[in-house]
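Q: Fold this one first, please.
A: Sequence and structure below.
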Amino acid sequence: MRRFGALLAALLLAGGLTACGGEAEMQSAQVFAMDTVMILTASGGETEAALKAAEDELYRLDRELSRTRESSAVSRLNSAPEGAAEVGEELRDLIARALDFSDATGGAFDITLAPVSSAWGFTEDAYRVPAREELEELMAHVGAEHVHLGDGTAVSLDPGTQIDLGAIAKGYASDVVAAICRENGVAHSTVSLGGNVWVCGGNPEGKPWQIGIQDPARPEEADAYVGILRMSDGFAVTSGGYQRYFEEDGKLYHHIIDPATGYPAESGLTSVTVVSEGTEGSGTMCDALSTALFVMGEERALDFWRSGTFDFEAILVTEDGRLLVTAGLEDSFTPDETAGYAYEVVS
């Protein structure tokens, strides 16, 4: 089952989009790309040019990074003779970053799960529980060690290995859109790419933007939040098992695969939001880490945050009804008490 409404896991509250006084009205654009409804708003600077350029880039990135488009750069790599191809500087650099995230997270983030995700039917919307023997065969080709960066823009894959950038592509796209807005002098902006949010400049009233973090227990309710995050400039990316799943024989299977097992991650978490300041490349980082932390589970995720390997904050929702927020968000996050979670600030 796919819940398109739930894909907007971190929602910008509509009340924050109203212009006032002498401020220019917020202009908006809507794009459907990367299997997601994307909503962009902006004011100030060359607003129309920024929105048009952002739309064009989102469509271009969809064409280049999609695993299901036969003409995409990713598909050409996956189907290349002997698994080697010239992929261009942009894709080569993105793959290199993905491999770095895989290394830093101990393999919790992995772009080589493509055939495993297909075996579960998540890529093709043809859901099924694969046989253990089938998964074991596919898992022999999973792991960052099966991806090789050659000279220049060359990338090669070991036989049987394929990549899928779905867990990092929207984050990268948000970085690209953020750069376009900066280049065009946009003063206020919100970008919501299906659970990947970037905001800048605060709202036109001079206050921080308000971002509602979706309650994973109530994904079909548009205004069901675990809390509200206030942020003027930065990224917030949410991953959760409630976004795409199916049920078979009374058991739910979600789309976030554990690279260590080939099965949907059973980490004790239902949602992870990673938050970072709006520095270059942070959208890509937040996207990758939201998936990795979900796979890690509470203890490993918080240890990873405490390690300082990357500069980010996090919001974790647990299966046993707790809402954990890292200390850096204590003053900018307000839990929704009606959601029924036990709230805790962790340090």
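Q: Good. Now the second chain.
A: Here it is, same layout.
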Amino acid sequence: MPRRGGTNESMTPQEMKQLAELLQNVPGIRSIDLKDVKGLAQLLRDSPEIGSIEVKGWFGTGVVITRTSAAGPTAPAAATIPLPAAFAAPVEAEPRESRPAPALKEIKSPMVGTFYKAPEPGAAPYVKVGSRITSGQTVCIIEAMKIMNEIEAEITGVVREVLADDAQPVEFGQVLYRVDPNG
């Protein structure tokens, strides 16, 4: 599978170093120290181009800090910082907001990353509006920390809406597709 993505140079080297130092001290096995969370929150406040920070440790430990003010970044900002293998800290823009249509089930992003609708550039998309999908079927790829993660449907039905744009950042929990389970 091809490698896609890159870094956005909007974070200064000082900010990247500060974030990397904070993340290296976050314990991944036991818990996340409150002072580290406060430090990450302060970094988010001091860097308006950052929409959110997600830190994942071993055995499912982690924290997500998201900007909640309306004055978020004007352009998508993404930075990938070299960290120990146990941590991931992608930084993304604010998620697209929309309301679910009644009776439609949502397929949401399980992580922060870059959304790809096809397995490689120029290939047909995994699914599009009107496609019939089955549980376990790959519907897209989300790249996080240079790793391509195939996202599988957890429901069977017909895709009624595609809400993410190809090669664009997505947030954890952002709705990617709406599916009619009765279709």
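Q: Anything worth noting on the second one?
A: Helices lie at 13-24, 34-46.
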